[in-house]
Amino acid sequence: MEATITPTTLQSATTAADLKKAEKTAYENNKLHKRLCRQVGQAIGDFNMIEDGDKVMVCLSGGKDSYALLDILMTLRERAPIHFDIVAVNLDQKQPNFPAHVLPEYLEKLGVPYHIENQDTYSIVKRVIPEGKTTCSLCSRLRRGILYRVADELGATKIALGHHRDDILETFFLNMFFGAKIKGMPAKLQSDDGKHIVIRPLAYVKESDTERYAELKQFPIIPCDLCGSQENLQRKQIKGLMREWEKKFPGRVENIFSALSTVVPSHLMDRTRFDFAGLAATGVADPDGDIAFDEEPCATPAAESTIIRLHADD
Ligand code: SF4
Questions:
Q1: Are 65 and 163 in contact (CB under 8 A)?
Q2: Which family does it belong to (predicted)?
Q3: How far, in Å, from the CA of 276 to the mean position of ligand 1?
């Protein structure tokens, strides 16, 4: 099903200037939809996320990202050369004021098979975690276990989550800054119970694009602070840092993201990933090998443009 984006403003534009503006908005919106489809299709292909005959369980929280994920996957399914099924799943954790009617109404209208799982994890978390302590880790653990069980019951072969590029980068920095690890959030992984494959088809999508898409499609967003837990402060700071980089140093965030798929273990320090102890000269020159005495930085084109811009700003 091709999503047709026809802003109502286009129909209601009265003056020539209005019409031009409305046409430009419609053009930008179509570009955004195409970009999302292209990036999600690319991630699915690169990581072989979805195969013929798969039943993909799309986890829907009511936030902008999971709505975008479901919407784009439904578009791609219509165009895909393979057959796969989609089932949308929401876990109603019985948080206070959770508007339980919103998702079923939306999903009915969309005509997609869905399942709402009702489990009062909110009360469990409140009972077990002392007041003032962070509840997210137990809450996520409970949620994960329930979703794996539901995937089994529904016969889902893949579990799709709505994490995007910025979530992946934030996790990468959090792990590095606070966990002393080079570790991100994979686009595809085996679940920790070893029974499921979890996929993140929005892995190449920028958060600002899911924000714009959610506005454009008027998704009925459910607020994510109903549990009363504060947003992780460290994640918030990293998000702010990345937004500042995007403004000040175009290309930097893209370069960091590309770096996640261009790892050179021989030029890091992890002895379990590279046999430094057994390293011996082969006598064969390697053009990509030792550049230890070369001038820094070893700029890529995008990094170079940042450096040039930096100097121009001096
Ligand atoms: S923010 Fe609330 S709902 Fe989300 S993981 Fe934390 S405790 Fe659970």
A1: yes
A2: Belongs to the TtcA family.
A3: 43
All domains of the chain, ordered by start, with CATH?
40-230 (3.40.50.620), 233-263+302-314 (no CATH)
Whose CA is closest to 169, among 134, 131, 202, 137? 202
Pocket residues: Cβ below 6 A from ligand 1: 135-136, 139-140, 227, 229
Cα pseudo-dihedral 265, 302, 45, 28, rounded to 10? 160
With 0.85 as the threshold, say if the pTM is over it. yes
Q: How far is CA 169 from the centre of its chain?
A: 9
Tokens standing for 107?
Answer: 């999903």
Ligand 1 geometric centre to CA of 235 (Å): 14
Question: Do strands 158-160 and 188-190 pair parallel, antiparallel, or not at all (unpaired)?
Answer: unpaired
pLDDT in tens, 192-248: 889 999 999 999 999 999 999 999 999 999 988 888 877 788 999 999 999 999 999
Could you give the CA distance from residue 71 to residue 63 in angstroms, rounded to a whole number? Answer: 13
| Mutual angle of helices 207-217 and 64-79, in 10-degree steps | 80
